[in-house]
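User: I'm writing a tutorial on reading structure tokens. Could you give me a worked example: one chain, its sequence, then its tokens, then a sentence or two explaining what the tokens reveal?
Assistant: Sure. Here is the example chain.
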Amino acid sequence: MLNEIQDALLRGKKDEVAALVDKALALEFPTSRILNEGLIAAMEKLGEMFKNNEVFLPEVLVSARAMSAGLAKLEPYLVRDNIQPKGSVVIGTVKGDLHDIGKNLVAMLLKGAGYKIIDLGVDVSAEKYVAAARENKADVVALSALLTTTMVQMKKIVEAVRSADLRSVVVIGGAPVTKEYADQIGADGYAPDAASAVEEVTRLLAR
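And here are its predicted structure tokens:
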């Protein structure tokens, strides 16, 4: 059953994933197993395949929608069973930048990996990041930029998070961003792509 959920999710079959989750719940599979061994396990496989260029953005987006359909069925039971997310992530594209495809993909894969996502959208100021991180007791603040002109905003946001004395770690990414730049501005982590972002967040929170 759990393998069937994985298979349907990897094929991006939204209705099939929802029906299989319903079936697993009716058969009284533990919600934690449906989540971890069905949905999350499939998204982890998908992340690896994406990283190895075995699948591409359209397939990932379709599978992420299938994941959301399965999660929607499961969420009331997760709440009932008090199953906690792995951590909370405030994510957005920085001030002045309106690009969101990469940011949306990172958010989807993180959600698929079991994290609670607070998506602030695009053109997000340092103040808005800090307010959302404080309000949600965020473990991670994730910043995306696609333009070299908006990349400079990341430094301001890192400084604002530090000044606010938040416990959040800051992870940055986007086409022009490099590991060297992340080190230079004092970010805690850097990811070159969406699959790596999940690994980086998991690594940082395991510390």
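What the tokens reveal: The beta strands are 88-93, 116-119, 140-144, 169-173, 189-191. The chain has a mean pLDDT of 93.
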